[in-house]
Amino acid sequence: MKSSFVLSVVTFAWLGVSVFYISYLVFKRSVVGKLASLSALLVVLLHTVGILLRWKESYELGIGHAPLSNLYESLVFGAWAIMAVYLIFEWRYRQYNLGFIPSMLSFLAMAYASFSPDIDSRIQPLIPALKSNWLIAHVITCFLGYAAFGVSFGVSVIYVLKKKYPDSFLSSIFADLKSLEEFNYQIIMFGFLWLTIGIITGAVWANSAWGSYWSWDPKETWSLITWLVYAAVLHARSVRNWRGFRVAIMSIAGFGCVLFTYFGVNFLLSGLHSYATK
Amino acid sequence: MLNFFRRLYDFIVSLRCAILILILLAISSILGTLFPQGMPDEAVFSQYGEGSLKAKLIIFFGINDLYHSGWFQFLLIALAVNIILCTIERIPKTLKLWSHTEKDLSPARLTKFSHSVVIKSLLNFDRTIELVKQCVGKTFRAAPEIVIASDDQWSCVIQKGKFSLFMVYGLHFTILVILFGAFLGSVLGFRGMMNIVEGASENLVRIAKKDRAIKLPFKVRCDDFNIEFYKDGTPKEYVSKISILKNNKKIASAEIKVNHPFTFEGITFYQATYGSLIKEADVTFIEPKTNKTFKLKLSPHKPQPLGNTKTMVHLLDFKENFSGFGPALAIAIMTPGQNPQGSWILAKFPKFHGNKIGKFRVVVDDFKTFFYTGLQVKRDPGVWIVIFGFIGFVLFLMATFYWNYRKLWITIVKGNDSWDVYVAGRTNKNQLAFEREFHRVCEELKKALGVSEVNS
Questions:
Q1: Average pLDDT over chain B, rounded to whole?
Q2: Domain count, chain A
Q3: CB-based contact (8 Å) between B384 and chain A?
Q4: How far apart are CA B115 and CA B102, in angstroms?
Q5: CB–CB contact B230 A125 (8 Å)
Q6: Worst-scoring range by mean pLDDT, A25-34, A142-151, B106-115, B371-380?
Q7: In this complex, is the C-beta atom of B108 within 8 Å of any C-beta atom belonging to chain A?
Q8: What is the pLDDT of residue A277?
Q9: Does one domain contain both A107 and A151?
Q10: Does one domain contain both A111 and A199?
């Protein structure tokens, strides 16, 4: 089986998972919720198989490297990470009804990676700057952070809607505000931890490749800005006791920074990370 | 006046000030990604117009080198000062929490906690105490500290993770360690470039952005530079083979690749760039009127006469890719009593109409180049402090997030027809996890005391 085939199946499977999660919200049958959860788990496994196959295929082409080297591969990994992180939290906090936004984000990332004419999905050889074991550590840690912020974005949107329209159909189907808030906070902490490790591995790598851990390249700068926004969220919550609504709004803004760090910097600003545009 | 300073200090140690600094840092960082960095002032003027307001503002605020400008560094220092002062300001509160001794363990207070439960034990007083001690010690995994042990009341507190109160200080301290390491590196170390032609040796390092060079205590010779390519033509590896020479004796050698630097006596060499220089070129000069041709073998710094004339031909410069037209040679001719004339000659386009110097058409028949390697050279004694700070930051971050201070208060007093066990609990983070743990402890207590009814 070819990885490209597996990954195109996975693309539509995420749409299916997303439909399951919506159905659970509509029908409120726990059977549907468990089905959504189970299907998400199976698709994550299939997605993992797709990524591993692509890794193996790169070795068969004689240019073996981890599939984390360009925009296509990072989108595929990002889509995987969002749902993997979401499932960990779903299982830990027993919240089965928040999967709709993360699975939709995964579907959109995969669809964009597969169908955008600007994105090259071929396996390309690794340029000398990326030939390092730090590549795997740096990309995985950064994307775990981004993924957690993506999940937090989903939870925050639900929180804001629920708070703004307390009497609507929406508010009756999601968990109470208090557990949503706690859930959101746990995910932000998780994301912050991984983004921190991602920035640090990037700095250590830059130091061993170019001799400076920080060069104020646009990607570095924007990831620092994202980091500062979430640092502000954490401080506002722990020192000034901000809760709920304001934290949710800040998390939505933070995810805007994540998206700009990831897409905006690639397409609008040039710098050391320019290999991430194709 | 004193009042003013008091208010200034209060502002500096406030979270509002910290957030303000973070926002200012974020906005100025964004500014730095919108304007090209590292542009010399002259380039700014030529891009935005000589004397234009925009150019003047950019230069006045140092936006062309924003991250090294005085006011940006001031913001970084302000952040460090804010972190230090906020920490000092908060230490007494933490110490108070640390050394807090419990006095009031009355049922009235314990029932006010958000996690609070009453269990009615039908066993006698001593047996109840013994079972509570045993059971809580086992399920909460911490030793009870007895506060009151009288004939009609027994109270204790049980706590764990008290040390986690200090983790947030460690976290902020490691930020200062990282800043200190970076500062030490920039003061005691240096960073510069070294271009070495294949076969040549060099001991001068040009320092970036400063008209300064550092002389290394040894020479670096570039034995060979090579670019390897993949089948599809993209570069696979840039490799410099270098030797270290002391008193013209080779004492070490290494292969430097991107991602594989080489360190010698605390100085690290990184593969940064490369380029090629012209070695020699076979050039034909044609005089169109007479169709007379002159064939010349040129090399830099060795002017050749044009046939038997007094005109000398100089090979001045070489560009590997001249505005996208491939390699080009800068050639000039000098005739005594006349102004020198010269032009860039495109090597791959012999028929290009611009391949002309004075009255001659010039064709490059062949040329040979050799590489030079561009090495980034760095000495940074602060690097280990920075890495130590990084590791510390991650460890303290995990401890701050996931290690919490959990405390239970237990009081046993005489009820109507039973001994009432009041249990209250509190944590400073991870409320959901603690709720579960508190619930589990209460369930176990009920089981141990043989009670089924619980009023919370």
A1: 87
A2: 2
A3: no
A4: 18
A5: yes
A6: A25-34
A7: no
A8: 47
A9: no
A10: no
Chain B residue numbers with beta carbons less than 8 Å from the beta carbon of A189 are 401
Given this model, what pLDDT does residue B40 score? 76
Taking a C-beta distance cutoff of 8 angstroms, is the pair B263, A133 a contact?
no
- Which percentage of chain B shows pLDDT scores above 70? 98
DSSP A244-276: THHHHHHHHHHHHHHHIIIIIHHHH--STTGGG
Residue A272: its pLDDT value, please? Answer: 54
Under CATH, which architecture does the B101-161+404-455 domain have?
Answer: 2-Layer Sandwich (3.30)
Tell me: do A85 and A138 sit in the same domain: no
Q: At what angle do helices B167-188 and B70-98 cross, to 10 degrees?
A: 150
Spell out which residues of chain A touch residue B430, defining contact as CB-CB under 8 Å: 186
Q: Tell me what pLDDT residue A274 has.
A: 53
Residue A102, amino acid: P
**Which of B259, B394, B402 should we substitute to test contact with A (largest number of A Cβ atoms within 10 Å)?**
B259
Distance, in Å, from the CA atom of B13 to the CA atom of B21, rounded to the nearest integer, reads: 12
Which residues in chain B (40-99) have CB-CB distances under 8 A to chain A? Answer: 66-67
Pair A143, A92 in one domain: no
Distance, in angstroms, between A50 CA and closest chain B CA?
25
Q: Do B258 and A204 touch (CB under 8 A)?
A: no
Q: Which positions in chain B touch A265 (Cβ < 8 Å)?
A: 33
Tell me, yes or no, whether A96 and A74 share the same domain: yes
The closest alpha carbon to A162, from A152, A176, A150, A149, belongs to: A176
Owning domain of residue A50: 1-120
For residue B453, the model assigns a pLDDT of 55
Count of A–B CB contacts within 8 Å? 101
One domain for residues A274 and A143: yes
Query: How sure is the predictor about B210, in pLDDT bands with cuts at 50, 70 and 90?
Result: low
Q: Are residues A141 and A71 in the same domain?
A: no
- Decide if B257 touches A, using CB distance below 8 A: yes
pTM: 0.86
